[in-house]
Amino acid sequence: MSNCAIVGINWGDEGKGRMVDLIAKDYDIVCRYQGGNNAGHTVVNEHGKFALHLIPSGIFSEGVVNILGNGVVIHLEDLWGEMQTLMDAGITVTPENFRISDRATIVFPFHKAQDCLEEERLRDAKYGSTRRGIAPVYSDKYQKKTVMMGELRHMDKLEKRLAGILEWKNLTIEKVYGAEGYKLADMMQWLRTWGEKLLPYICDTGAFLRQAQRDGKHILFEAQLGALRDLDYGIYPYTSSSTCLAAYAPIGAGAPGCHVDRAVGIVKAYSTCVGEGPFTCEWFGDEAEQLRKVGGEYGAATGRPRRVGPVDLVATRYGVAVQGATELALTKMDILSYMDQIPICAHYMLNGAQTDEFPFPSELADATPVITYMPGWKCDISGVREYDKLPKEARNYVEYLERELGCPITYVSVGAERDAIIRREKA
Phi/psi of residue 309, each to 5°? Predict the structure, then answer.
């Protein structure tokens, strides 16, 4: 068995969590490698329905070790709350099956505050932040003004360093935003209150992963968000603040020498987007509201209504390329069952010419969709578990996407539950 990355191909919210939950049992380790609790991975299984924001979706699989890697940013209080929710539901969360990298970065209350203050300052020009402090903490990390989880073991040394960080951070909060600054004593108490609860889970996960590789163990990497929200390759500046790509997985996990053999890209059967920025295929009005209602398209992390539209071949083809996807999982096929015709954004029009190339971010707002249609299947497919038993029109849709995207579709999801999935062999 190979190491595998589960990654988003589009704007996020593609269904990565349910795919990890499905195949985690086939791996020894599941590792989140970037992002923070701005993620919202919805999982529906025999234990119930869960929206995971930090904890990897492999937590429900017995015998699997779940890791938050060094590339993840962690709000202590929110993480502990998520752990408690799982444990209250009877899910095992112990230092044996859940580990936190000592090099992961702590998100402080002042990071959340700064995130909110900046979104309020921007008003209509905002980037669509989840207001979880993600952009400020990653910015601070690159300025070498953050605290690592492992420093919770050295509170005496940490206090002096945090004092310097806080002095610097309060200059921004007080002088730029005119808000009240934060006191060192309060932040140290916050660290002690929540950090002490997490101490048993913190370890050198990099060493653990390297040893696991030597022992022939297999790792499943779980990404947050999608290729079009990647900091370097997405619709900048309307991106996340970390690298969502499969190629980054070993680095953000803490095992840079590890090779990703399999990259499963997750694509919805239609397009959704939470947050701001250009979204070429976007629907509005009643058409959008119907799709949003049927698909339950509201952000798991934010609760915000998702922007919706038809599948976008131009954007998706680009996402497949930058993710280096070796295969695809097509999710939420069942949602399209109400449509007489299935719309597809097949091309863009840009500067008076048709194009299949995904434009540079500053050109995206000028692109318009070229829509084509395929016959719908107009029946409930949620109970189908074999590909050949799908209606011909549904199979035609899957096979058309496969040809146009140039990547095999090996999974077709027809429902939210773990077993509501059809497996296909690569052609």
Answer: 180, -175
Cis peptide before 375 (omega within 30 of 0): no
Whether the CB-CB separation of 209 and 67 falls below 8 Å is answered with yes
Q: Which two tokens mark 332?
A: 């939420």
Distance between CA atoms of residues 376 and 111, nearest Å? 47
Q: Can you list the residues of the chain whose pLDDT is less than 50?
A: none
Contact yes or no for 398/409 (Cβ under 8 A): yes
Q: What is the pLDDT of residues 198-239, one digit of tens each?
A: 999 999 999 999 999 999 999 999 999 999 999 999 999 999
| pLDDT at residue 300, rounded to an integer | 64
DSSP secondary structure of 304-366: PBPEEESEEHHHHHHHHHHHT-SEEEEE-GGGGGG-SEEEEEEEEEETTEEE-SPPPHHHHTT
Q: State the pLDDT at residue 301.
A: 63
111 is catalytic: no
Extract the tokens encoding 24: 């985690």
pLDDT at 127: 64
Distance of CA 206 to the CA centre of its chain: 22
Q: What are phi and psi of 386, to 5 degrees?
A: -125, 135
- pLDDT on residue 162: 97
Question: Which residue ranges form the domains of the chain, and what is each CATH number?
Answer: 4-104+201-264 (3.40.440.10), 106-198 (1.10.300.10)
List the catalytic residue out of 41, 53, 111, 347. Answer: 41
Distance CA 334, CA 33 (A): 30
Which residues fall within 8 angstroms of residue 264, CB to CB, at 6 or more apart?
4, 5, 6, 7, 19, 325, 326, 327, 328, 329, 410, 411
pLDDT at 125: 64
Q: What is the pLDDT of residues 165-182, one digit of tens each?
A: 999 999 999 999 999 999
380 is catalytic: no
